[in-house]
Design a protein that fits this description.
single chain; alpha+beta; four-stranded antiparallel beta sheet; 32% helix
């Protein structure tokens, strides 16, 4: 069937959507009130029963200082520093010992150490550990054929861009995402330098440039044009009962499964967008800061534990994104009381084995070179977190009151 032969009803049927669903969004949340900054809505399916304020007036659920906040250098993340920073070297036994000592002291045993547990955990990491699965260009033999069709326009089948945006979101959910939102790309959230070490230069970085319409990676620079000004934020639920096992192999399996799903879903969604004639870059934790992108896309708020807190799953999610030039309609950020709750609740800080989470007030800068100053928030200490994190510790997620099984009340 050639382009133009498919009618609107058939197209929506292929995506599992009806016209009413597109008009009302994925889950048709109910407006229950208005504030001076937006509207109050509720949707048990989308927001897990929370009353959510959509910030339709342009406000943000966070504060930042435009004079201080700069795009971050990926070289300074804790994972990159482990390759080149002398202060992060020569600690081969540290992570294992810290985790083991905690398990013995706090639980009186070392659980989940059987071969069965280890196999379960390692298999969950399979696709996440396959090098770099996030391709910037299509690897499909169909790519050349689809490129001849030009850019797809929703009007071809009687759709608006608002309806097309919902269709793309539905595709993201179909491919495996648990939550999806769209935002205008704030380039402050892209890394200004990508960490690209070589054997000769373990600190090597390459700049991220936007001066041309080129989309490519060279040995000297990465080019992401200004026209790629949309980001699709994707969140992936981690199993509640596996996270409840933290720290242990089952919690690590939940983490690995999240990373593997990130790779499959983001790359598949990017390919879908390319087949429609637009450019797309899928990314997991790389390329830029996933948390502020997800906040801008309306998926949640930032919590004391330094992670995204969503209404439906709490912080029990992994994040990926797709950057594109497809002119999707952006969502708006939301508020549902996370910052106010975290001011009073210190459970994550008190249950963090490495004491990496602040139990004090929010500040404008942190203690670590891996912190990016200029945002008013609780800064964690990544060195402490990483050094304990041999078992993909998720204690902060486990004890967070926003972490709950689906359709249940908050923990006490």
């Amino acid at each position: 069937m050639r382009s133009g032969e498919i009618n609107r009803r058939d197209f929506l049927h292929l995506l599992g959507l009806g016209t009413a669903a597109l008009a009302g969004g994925l889950f048709s949340p109910r407006v229950v009130g208005r504030t001076n900054r937006g509207v109050l809505i509720e949707s048990s399916e989308e927001y897990g029963g929370f009353l959510v304020e959509k910030l339709t007036g342009g406000d943000l659920p966070y504060q930042y200082d435009p004079q201080r906040l700069k795009a971050f250098n990926e070289k300074m993340t804790i994972f990159s520093r482990n390759f080149w920073d002398p202060a992060r070297q020569n600690r081969p036994e540290l992570k294992e010992n810290l985790t083991y000592e905690y398990l013995v002291k706090e639980k009186g045993r070392v659980p989940n150490q059987t071969r069965l547990d280890f196999a379960f955990m390692r298999a969950a990491w399979l696709y996440a550990s396959k090098g770099s699965p996030y391709n910037w260009e299509s690897k499909s033999g169909y790519a050349r054929f689809f490129s001849r069709l030009g850019k797809w326009e929703p009007a071809e089948i009687g759709m608006s861009w608002a309806e097309a945006t919902v269709a793309v979101k539905h595709a993201a959910l179909f491919y495996g995402a648990s939550l999806v939102g769209v935002a205008k790309l704030n380039r402050l959230w892209l890394y200004r330098e990508q960490f690209s070490p070589t054997r000769e230069n373990r600190e090597r970085t390459v700049p991220v440039l936007s001066e041309s319409e080129r989309l490519e990676r060279t040995k000297d620079a990465w080019y992401i044009p200004e026209s790629m000004n949309r980001v699709i934020a994707l969140a992936f639920e981690e199993d509640y009962y596996a996270i409840a096992n933290s720290p242990g192999r089952l919690a690590s399996a939940a983490t690995g499964n999240g990373y593997s799903r990130m790779a499959v879903t983001a790359t598949t969604l990017a390919e879908f967008i390319r087949y429609l004639g637009y450019r797309a870059i899928p990314a997991g934790s790389g390329l830029g800061l996933s948390i502020p992108m997800a906040i801008d896309a309306g998926l949640g708020e930032l919590g004391r534990l330094g992670l995204l807190v969503t209404p439906k799953y709490g912080p029990r999610v992994r994040l990926a994104k797709v950057i594109t030039d497809m002119p999707l309609i952006p969502d708006v950020p939301i508020r549902f009381g996370v910052a106010e709750f975290c001011e009073a609740c210190l459970l994550c800080a008190h249950h963090c084995p490495s004491k990496a989470i602040s139990d004090g007030p929010r500040t404008w800068e942190g203690k670590s070179p891996s912190n990016n100053p200029g945002v008013f928030k609780w800064y964690i200490e990544p060195e402490k977190c990483y050094d304990f994190n041999n078992f993909s510790c998720s204690n902060c997620k486990r004890v967070c009151p926003f972490t709950k099984p689906n359709n249940s009340w908050l923990h006490r």
